[in-house]
What does this fold into?
Amino acid sequence: MSDFIPFVRLGFHHISNAAALDHMLFLVALVATYRWRDWRYLLGVATAFTVGHSISLALVVTDLVRLPASIIEFLIPVTIVGTALANLWHAGARPSGWLRPLFAAAFGLIHGAGFANFLREMFTGPPGAHLLAFNTGIEAGQIVILTVALALLEGLDHLAVRWTSRHAFLFRAVATSLVAAVWAAVMAVERVPW
It folds into this structure.
């Protein structure tokens, strides 16, 4: 149990350092169409993502499933493009329903496999406690990133409304999604495995 805290730190660091830019970009794209008042919907989407990546993290780390790292690294930015395009498709609509959490869970499966490929190399024994600790760190990091991103985006909305128009939220959702889509598309092209 003495390894629990170091693996929590490792998970937190893995999601929050510059090398995890693709995962952070996904979280920013995920939160781009939400406001504080939509916290229940965002919680549902974030929980679905967590469930998805926790499942694949466990499956890959325990060697029940083997996935090529090159394919996973390519699919991660593809999930960002997909999320950003969904944002653009529904721009201005209040988030609700089951479709977005379903996609978040599916995309979580891909992101979890990316975490797992990194983590599998670190285990020296049974992965149970290490896996729980690492996942706890990732979740803590995701909560911090989602909260900071939402706070920054909401702050920009308030500044924009003060100086420009009442359509600041729509502009923010579209602009953030476009930037995320283009950035992730470039990443995907650089990671094409064939």
Remarks:
- Residues 4-190 form one domain.
- The two ends are 42 Å apart (CA to CA).
- Residues 48 and 102 are 7 Å apart (CA to CA).
- Residues 128-163 form the longest helix (36 residues).
